[in-house]
UniProtKB/TrEMBL annotation:
Protein name from the UniProt record: ATP-binding protein
Keyword ATP-binding (UniProt): yes
InterPro entries: AAA+_ATPase, CHLI-like, Mg_chelat-rel, Mg_chelat-rel_C, Mg_chelatse_chII-like_cat_dom, P-loop_NTPase, Ribosomal_Su5_D2-typ_SF, Ribsml_uS5_D2-typ_fold_subgr
Keywords: ATP-binding, Nucleotide-binding
Gene3D superfamilies noted in UniProt: 3.30.230.10, P-loop containing nucleotide triphosphate hydrolases (3.40.50.300)
Keyword ATP-binding annotated: yes
A Pfam family per the record: ChlI
Taxonomic path: Bacteria, Bacillati, Actinomycetota, Actinomycetes, Mycobacteriales
Family per record: Belongs to the Mg-chelatase subunits D/I family. ComM subfamily.
């Protein structure tokens, strides 16, 4: 009897767990038995791995082979274990030295001819290996740039199983990352391309400066979508930690580029209004995959024509908006994905959506039902609500408004002021500060927040709405360079919540 070992990583959400793969070659009829809660794709790897080994000029044992993946209670999903399975068998057959193998994490799917294919979740897997103190990792060559984003661990890329076997024997060298990726430039359009809409432009700036959620309503063709598409261009570049967070999510989703995978700009995700709850929040069979709200982490989630979305899909946004995280329970476990995004909603005032409101032919109940898709608790989480008006003049003015670069400078200055103020509490933007902090610890004078108290007394505002109004007031103060919000800032923030949108 011979025993071999290799190691890989199981990715659940954006977290990774090291998996030990043991191969036992014993007496019995030839066959491969796989244990350790494998899914269908992993069960099929028995035939893939055996064909890959034989087609790589290596000998597969002519006896019974048992492959065990530990921890045995952890569900194993996907084909990421193929390379480790093959090398554990070769190790058990004493075909490869153990000095490198026992200190290397192996990731990759094998083709029948031994080629190594890229898999999802390489970045979080490498991060998990580094966290556990492993010195090196071998990945498919197509995912080398992605794995190279992690510092403090040796990363090697291979094109086929044969190369990895020869590398373990010391006969060849595997490729290494040529340099850390710097992130591709992303263009979201310039704010100067939007004609008129001064009030909506200012609301967009306020939303960007404080990471507040935004709702835009108005007739079709007045620039709601254009404004939303330009919001990411006003946001600061992601920090190194934020870039790795966002890139890890997109790695699990399988949407990264091979050559330059690092995401450094705030993502903009705009799902179609027919999207399902699963596509929006995340899910799928087996282990849940990230949905649109997680792919919009640290960026913008734009829901155009939101009254056309299903009620269940809209209501599923409640918890992520409050907690900045989504937890999805499926057959193979619970996946946690970050979901700290800015929500931008856009809608026409009614189903017929005429250019002039007086031309509307919808019955009052139809208008109410159309914009009533958002429940009270959900709309209460939207901080800035603007009703945009159709432009009568100014559409063909040659003088353009401020560009995104100018506005982004003011947004960056406001965010810097907010980050300094909340640094000791562990927050960076006004939009993520909890209610207890703005109500008690950093409390404003009563004469400043008196309009909020009056609105609460008259039942025009909820406790959550009061907290969010104070956050917007802080953002308005940051934009004008003040140390504290004034009563005018509070009244303006209150007006944003009371803006008529139905």
């Amino acid at each position: 009897m011979a025993l071999g070992r290799a190691h890989s990583v199981a990715v659940c959400g954006v977290d990774g767990t090291l998996v030990e793969i043991e191969a036992d070659i014993g007496r019995g009829l030839p066959g491969v038995h796989l244990v350790g809660l494998p899914d269908t794709a992993l069960q099929e790897s028995r035939d893939r791995v055996r064909a890959a080994v034989t087609n790589s000029d290596e000998k597969w044992p002519d006896s019974r082979v048992i492959l065990a993946l530990s921890p045995a209670t952890l569900p194993k999903v996907g084909s990421v274990y193929d390379l480790a399975l093959a090398l554990s068998v070769l190790d058990a057959a004493r075909e490869v030295p153990r000095d490198k193998l026992e200190k290397t994490v192996l990731l990759g799917e094998l083709a029948l001819d031994g080629r190594l294919r890229r898999v999802r979740g390489i970045l979080p897997a490498v991060l998990a290996a580094k966290k556990e103190g492993w010195p090196r990792v071998v990945v498919p060559a197509a995912g080398l740039a992605e794995a190279g984003l992690v510092d403090g661990i040796e990363v090697f890329g291979a094109t086929c199983l044969r190369d990895v076997v020869l590398w373990l024997r010391g006969e060849v060298m595997l490729s290494e990352p040529s340099g850390r990726a710097i992130g591709a430039d992303v263009s979201y359009g310039d704010l100067s391309e939007v004609s008129g809409q001064v009030e909506a432009r200012w609301a967009l700036e306020v939303a960007a400066a404080g990471a507040h959620h935004l709702m835009l309503t108005g007739p079709p063709g007045i620039g709601k979508t254009m404004l939303a598409q330009r919001l990411p261009g006003l946001l600061p570049k992601l920090s190194e930690q934020e870039s790795l967070e966002v890139t890890a999510i997109h790695s699990v989703a399988g949407s990264l580029a091979d050559d330059n995978p690092l995401i450094t700009a705030a993502p903009f995700i705009a799902p179609h209004h027919t999207t399902s709850v699963t596509a929006l929040v995340g899910g799928g069979a087996g282990m849940a995959r990230p949905g649109a709200i997680s792919r919009a982490h640290r960026g913008v989630l734009f829901l155009d024509e939101y009254p056309e979305l299903g009620t269940k899909a809209l209501e599923a946004l409640r918890t992520p908006l409050e907690e900045g995280e989504v937890r999805i329970a499926r057959r193979d476990g619970v996946a946690k994905y970050p979901a700290r995004f800015q929500l931008v909603l856009a809608a026409n005032p009614c189903p017929c959506a005429p250019a002039r409101e007086v031309d509307c032919v919808c019955a009052p109940i139809a208008r109410r039902r159309y914009l009533g898709k958002l429940s009270g608790p959900l709309v209460d989480r939207v901080d800035v609500r603007i009703k945009m008006q159709a432009m009568s003049t100014g559409a063909f003015d040659t003088q353009a408004g401020e560009g995104s670069a100018v506005v982004a400078e003011r947004v960056a200055a406001a965010r810097s002021a907010a980050a300094q103020r909340w640094a000791e509490y562990g927050f960076t933007t006004n939009g993520e500060v909890p209610g207890w902090l703005v109500r008690s610890t950093v409390r404003l004078p009563y004469k400043v927040i008196a309009p909020i108290d009056l609105a609460l007394r008259h039942g025009q505002l909820t406790a959550r709405g009061a907290d969010r109004t104070i956050r917007v007031a802080w953002t308005l103060a940051d934009l004008r360079g003040a140390h504290l919000p004034s009563r005018a800032d509070v009244e303006q923030a209150l007006a944003y919540r009371n803006e008529i949108h139905a």
